[in-house]
Write a structure and sequence with these properties.
This protein is of the alpha/beta class. It is 38% helix and 14% strand. Strand 2 (117-120) and strand 3 (127-130) form a beta hairpin. It is globular, with a radius of gyration of 31 Å.
Length: 400
């Protein structure tokens, strides 16, 4: 009898243990299932968030395409290079310099052989010639008499083009310290930029050589100089270039490129600065085209006056040292110009696709002439000596 009672007691205990194990297992399984569902939900949330971010980024990028330099000839598809060489970003305006209505603007005497500014405008034309340099206007000039014999620039151009030049010679930019020049040789690394038809001339290598020559001249003249890259292996994003310049506290940002076209007919020199707020880009397929929301005040627009002085000074001197044909001082919302927190310009040192321009670009002496012209323009800008007729600053050799 005792044996049977012990057996039943043991059986009850075993049953209770089994029931407890079963219940615990169920709870554990449900907990694991719930944890797995939470992990899955978290994973799906992350993926969803990334997707939303991607969509937002994509939408933003569609409004702000990356334009980093060269603009090709009308109707041409580029054989190499960045997005800015796509045909929807090409220029289509013929370059026809106005030859009527000379306007003489007296400048403030600054010593030496300074002369009045000679400005040529034509009613209805958005091109002007200022001291022999072709300059694209934001708006066409307007006639102020019935015959169109006299005309004047639009108010926006008077403020952002003519007034800056007429007063640019009065003072040095930084009289008490060396000016800090940040030079950005375009492309680099796995982005070689444009190349000649036989691929013997590579844009990224040529502009690096020009930049180093320029840096040497500037350093010898007492400027502080930094380069965004010092070799052909470095590959920087566009925003990294302007960020480096800002961190270095640069006074000037200068991006150096060489232009390209699938044809061999396009040739000559171009310099770009940022358009004023709400004004069109002159690098577009038509004058009303815009690549960004032009109602927005871009970081680079805080330096509109200095941008104009800088770009004009470089274009004018570079034309003289190289003998390149003048394709004009233009405006475009290229990424490095948009985001530069200091005065900035982008120079297109001829066309790598042009046999005419190649004769200069391919030789060390030719690239030295390009560097010399940019150097002289930077000196005019820095020292406040932009009045017509003043001689260029001499090159100083390093005697150490």
């Amino acid at each position: 009898m005792l044996f049977i009672e012990d057996f039943l007691h043991a059986l009850r205990n075993a049953t209770l243990i089994f029931i407890l194990i079963f219940i615990t297992g169920c709870v554990s399984t449900k907990s694991e299932d719930k944890l797995g569902q939470e992990e899955q939900a978290t994973s799906e949330s992350v993926v969803s968030n990334r997707y939303e971010i991607t969509l937002r980024t994509s939408t933003t990028n569609s409004k702000l395409p990356i334009l980093d330099g060269p603009v090709i000839q009308t109707g041409q598809d580029a054989y190499n290079g960045p997005i800015s060489r796509r045909p929807d970003f090409v220029e289509s305006k013929p370059v026809k310099a106005p030859i009527e209505v000379p306007v003489h603007v007296e400048s403030i005497p600054s010593g030496g052989d300074a002369k009045p500014w000679n400005i040529r405008l034509k009613a209805g034309s958005d091109l002007a010639v200022i001291d022999g340099v072709l300059v694209y206007l934001s708006q066409p000039a307007k006639a102020i008499d019935s015959k169109g014999g006299k005309c004047k620039p639009a108010p926006i151009d008077e403020r952002t083009i003519f007034a800056p030049l007429k007063t640019a010679h009065t003072n040095a930019i930084a009289p008490m310290r060396p000016l800090r020049i940040f030079i950005d040789p375009g492309h680099g690394g796995d982005d070689p930029g444009a190349h000649s038809k036989n691929a013997t001339l590579i844009e990224s290598k040529l502009v690096l050589d020009i930049s180093k020559r320029l840096a040497k001249h500037l350093s010898n003249a007492g400027f502080e100089v930094a380069l965004s890259r010092s070799d052909s292996s470095t590959n920087l994003r566009l925003d990294e270039r302007t960020t480096k310049a800002a961190r270095w506290k640069a006074d000037v940002f200068l991006s150096i490129h060489i232009n390209a076209s699938t044809g061999s007919g396009a040739h000559g020199l171009e310099t770009y600065v940022l358009p004023a707020k709400e004004q069109p880009s002159t690098a577009a397929s038509n004058s009303s085209a815009t690549f960004v929301n032009t109602t927005e005040q871009l970081p680079g627009n805080t330096n509109n006056v200095r941008n104009m002085q800088l770009g004009f000074a470089i274009q004018r001197r570079l034309l003289k040292t190289t003998g390149f044909d003048d394709r004009g001082l233009r405006r475009a919302r290229f990424a490095v110009l948009r985001e530069a927190s200091m005065p900035a310009a982008l120079v297109e040192c001829g066309f790598i696709s042009s046999k005419k321009d190649q004769k200069l670009i391919e030789t060390p002496n030719g690239r030295e002439r390009i560097a010399l012209g940019i150097y002289q323009g930077l000196c005019d800008y820095a020292y406040g000596t932009m009045s017509p007729g003043l001689p260029p600053h001499p090159v100083k050799e390093n005697t150490k």
